[in-house]
Amino acid sequence: MSKSKSDSTRRSDNVLHTKLMPPRLQSSVIQRDNLVKRLDESLDKKLTLITAPTGFGKTTLVSLWIASRQFTSAWVTLDENDNDPSRFWTYIITALRAFDSDLGKTTLSALSAPQPPAFQTFLTPLLNDLTRLSEPCVLILEGYHSITSKDINESFTFFIRNLPETLHLVLVTRNVPDLPLALLRARNELLEIDTNDLRFNLQEVESFLRKAAQKEIPASAAASLFQKTEGWVAGLQLAALSLQNKSDEEVQKFVQTFSGSHRYVSDYLIHEVFESQAESAQNFLLKTSFLKSLTASLCDAIMESSNSASLLEQLERENLFLVRLEQSGNQIWYRYNPLFAESIQFLARQRLSDSTIQSLLGKASDWYEYHGLLEDAIETALQANLFGRAMTLIEKYIEIHDLRQLYTLNRWLELIPRQDILKRPIICFTFAQIILYSEDRFATATGLKLEPFLAAAESIWQTQENHASLGQLLSFRGNVAWWQGDFPKAFGLARKSLAELPESEVFWRGNSLLMVSYEALHEGRILDAQDLILEARALLGAAQNIYGVLAAIQLLSEIFYLQGELEQSEQLNQQILVDAVGDESMLDDQGIASLSLANIAYERNELDQAERFVTRALDLGKQRANEMLQAQATIRLAQIYSAKGDVSGAQDFLKSIEARIQNPALLRELQNAKVMLCISSNDISALDWWVKMVTAENHNTLHLEEEREAFTLARLRIAENKPKEALNILNSWSSDVMANGRVRSQIEKLILEALAYHVESNRLRSNERMIDAIALGQPKEFRRLFLDEGTKMAALLQAVLPSLPNRTLSMFATTLLHSFPAGSLANSTATKSSVQIEPLSQQELRVLRLLVAGLSNADIAQELVVSNNTIKTHVKSIYRKLNVKSREEARQAARELKLL
User: Fold this and answer.
1) Contact, 521 vs 558, CB < 8 A?
2) Alpha-carbon distance 849 to 863, whole Å?
3) Which of the following CATH numbers is that of domain 842-896: 1.10.620.20, 3.90.215.10, 1.10.10.10, 3.50.90.10?
4) Which fold would CATH assign to domain 684-835?
5) How far is CA 256 from CA 53, 209, 262, in A?
6) Which end of the chain is more exposed for a tag (fewer CB within 10 A), N or C?
7) Which of 146-155, 253-262, 337-346 has the lowest mean pLDDT?
8) Of the spans 279-283, 636-640, 882-886, which averages the highest pLDDT?
9) To the nearest whole number, what is the mean pLDDT of the chain?
10) What percent of the chain clears pLDDT 70, i.e. is strictly above it?
């Protein structure tokens, strides 16, 4: 016998056990040896697909197979409520744990997190766990036709493609699923059994009728029923029930009048079968037909009786389309055949009043709640249109599960009239969150759609003086404003929420602190922002809010970038790329991290690498319709093209996106980039419009945006030969830049001051500012800040080179000069004589490479198969050519000159 371990398997508390119980075989089952043999042969394949309409014996065939074989099996009965990916995979994994109780722990843990990750992420450890199975196992999914979710089909496709050989899948379905069946056929990894395979032949019809009718049926009558039903098992079963206790003459008369399509046949025969039952059985069938699964105590609760157990046993004995499931604990569970249940429900709606049916379902909902089956209690309340009760249960569900089953919650709330929802603040708040996180959060329409629910909840909580809930709502409103691009509004809402939220609230306080830290960052207070971000990250981590943690890491990386700590910023963004593997919204995090890495590579003058990163960021921005990411990535890409000498290409990039930008702040940022291109190409005659715009008072402009525009305006004044105006602009930022530790801004300001003094012919001050800029920029690896200033900067570097106080700064300046395009240097001969470095031989380069890697002279000699004295000679020559005295200085020189 097949070993189904459904009773011994440990399952999640919110899993309905009856969905994991395979049906038991009835005594009248007909052996189908040919089909069972085909199923045996399918174990060498990945998937068996059994497809046919209701009533063709799909489930019975699989039950017959697993009951007569020794392999271990697990069973899941799916329905339309399983179109939530989290719910679907929870049931699948819980069933799979019948094979090994330790299987799928990591995946179940991921699914129970507030924001479940992408399916590749949580399915990979599950698939790895399945490779440990030592014996063939079979997982049966009955009712896969109920699954319409694109996300589930995509994840299940991934699961099938990577399935280990020890696990075989069986799908029992009414129609062909949206899965890669063509590929499986081509690889001979699929067995298909369809309607024609499942039809009874004449011999099977005769045997079945004899067992089901419990009497001999004339051969002519059996042949006629075979012809009229076309081997349809459900029709034959209904006919057999009608033939019980009939004489031969009555049998012949029945067969002669029996005709029509399957739908007609089922309606006709079910009515006849139903009418033949005792009144007590009819009453029981009518009142329990709406239940998806039945057990005696549940039926007793809705029937207000105590004899349901005996009635269920009687109906099963009479083969009245009642299937007994495997037993779980003290409860014996059953379910009706779907075709039979639908027809009895039709009769019930004719014979019972709406209020009676509602009362029955209400009692069932009460029973489910009492027994801890909260989802079934909600589903049944909604089925009965008991919306008040349903919302009370949903509030309890939210308290336990948060928003983990987003699709399920959304489906429930869509069934409830809006006027009822607007009276329940918790439901309103939840619905607003579902709308934001399941739709395009950047779209204005999304904000408009959720606003009525937020307004209703806010009004009720204000009346109740419920400060904690108001704080949560204000924090969420900040999120909405953030995604809609209104940062000043988001910051204000975040500050208000912190005043309302209690100290014990970690999730929403962390969320609001994140926005407040962003405000501090863009006000230029990066030291304050750093403290706020670290606090926010701690709270968000405690709340298991991976999205918030990633956002905090990204903001921290931006602070390091502004402080000139490029290596630390790079490490944080690489961490984001590794960790941001959740749902589709995490593509925003990947895009922002890619853009940040592009910015870092650009500052280091690694233009090709910067272009690769920014192209990825732009692609993700388009995929996510993320306007901010698209705009900022396009600006960076234009700067890369300009740095490579393609100014017209850079201008085309900026023009390509300008008409699509809706956010005013992003439009100003784009306009600033266009002005920078004009200045670098000495096309400054028509920029009065921009000057008027940036010098006009604007309270909505963020502080760092003001700084960026001020520095651009200073560049314009230098280009216009107005150095005093440029210096006045720059002086107004001196204390702010220094006090807040914005090292990158300090370097940029020093560079611009050096250029302004150079235009003013104040060589002494120009050199002082230039030396300070080089001294500050060299250890921070900032190169493009110098190089983007063009030929004027090349001239300044040439002029200051003899005055630099040490070899390290000279090497850095030399590297910069070598990085300018050919023709940028005003006096190439003089420059070469000042900064010329004697080339290293190929063997010296090999020695330098190993020396920098940390090898001793003896190790280098052994690696290159030469003597120690030879290596000493090479090292001495390298030190002389690079003008260094130690390995550390050699390593630094090699990096500055990019010799390795």
Assistant:
1) yes
2) 12
3) 1.10.10.10
4) 1.25.40
5) 26, 16, 16
6) N
7) 253-262
8) 636-640
9) 87
10) 92
Choose among 289, 346, 275, 347: nearest CA to 322: 289
Helix axes 546-563, 586-603, angle to 10 degrees: 10
Domain boundaries, the chain: 3-198, 202-275, 684-835, 842-896
| Helix, strand, coil percent content, the chain, rounded in steps of 5 | 65, 5, 30
Beta carbons within 8 Å of 375's beta carbon, 6+ residues apart: 14, 16, 81, 397, 408
Least confident of 434-443, 459-468, 823-832: 823-832
DSSP 322: E
**How many angstroms separate the CA atoms of 70 and 538, rounded?**
52
Top pLDDT among 831 and 458 is at 458
Assess whether pLDDT exceeds 90 at residue 642.
Answer: yes
Q: What is the DSSP string of 694-725?
A: HHS--TTS-HHHHHHHHHHHHHHHHHTT-HHH
Give the pLDDT confidence score for residue 262 in this predicted structure: 45
Q: With contact defined as beta carbons under 8 Å apart, do 560 and 566 qualify?
A: yes
**Alpha carbon distance 859, 879 (integer Å):** 19
**Contact (CB, 8 A) for 786 and 773:** yes
Q: Which is nearest to 18 in space by CA: 143, 136, 120?
A: 143
CATH 3.60.9.10 fits 3-198, yes or no: no
Q: How far apart are CA 167 and CA 131, in angstroms?
A: 9
**Contact assessment for residue 767 and residue 799, using Cβ atoms and an 8 Å cutoff:** yes
Sheet arrangement for strand 167-173: 3-4, 72-77, 137-142, 167-173, 47-51, 190-193
pTM: 0.70
SS3 73: strand
